Fold this protein.
Amino acid sequence: MAAVLQNPRKFLRNSFRRLNNRFSIGRVGGLFSAVVSILLATSVCWQTAAAVEISTASTAQIVEGMQRHDQLQERMLQGYQGMRHYSVVYRGFKRTITAGMDVEVIYEPASGKTFRIISQEGSGMLCEKVLKRALDSEREASLDKSATALNSVNYRFQFVEMDRVEDRPAYILNVEPIAPSKFLYKGKIWVDTAEFAVTKMEVQPAKNPSFWISRTQIHHANEMTNGFWLPEQNRSETKVRIGGTAIMTINYLSYRITAQPNSLTLLSQPASH
């Protein structure tokens, strides 16, 4: 096996030479079967060795591309305003409780995010204990971007496989926080191969935010808006220890973007390897 991985062409050439010496013309059927077996074995070994080499090398390149993309977007994006609709549904103890909230968000790089609640409906308890806390948590995280950045300082990355998101090729990476934090997560991310923007996430919090929560699974999607990759939808499903499930959905409805001149042209150019 070591010989195959080190020099598969030499191994294949020597194997054919040994087979020609061993088999006669009358045993061509056996020769053909043996050749097929060697080709398959060599192909598997060759692909395995190549996959290991490519994934290891590509992981560093992908992470570097992600960091370049994020730095460029942060530099070019002067701010935005947007509308969101938050909804939460709790099912447990033979009852269902719901709540909803429409929120305006304003983002400025220097001051982070601020939120203004336009309207709310449904359970007051869910609005206070779930939705408003989600706003407070996001506001807090936006004030310290270095602690929440998706980079090699905060995370370990591992290439998994190739995939497609909205008909665009993407890398799938496993992400694992270097240190647990309530603002970091672990799971899988999808990275656009052309622009190195994160397009999708399937993750869970790196640190359980409460004893009463047994598990939270988060599905997040980004989309390109006026040249910038911004959130499109976030859906989290939380299992509560005492029974029941809470599902919170955030739909990002509109953006009004303030950007640096020429930023759209720069952001539309794929990151170089």
Summary: The first strand starts at residue 77 and ends at 92. The beta strands are 77-92, 95-108, 112-122, 155-165, 168-177, 185-192, 198-205, 213-225, 228-240, 245-259. DSSP finds six helices and ten strands in the chain. The CA atoms of residues 85 and 102 lie 5 Å apart.
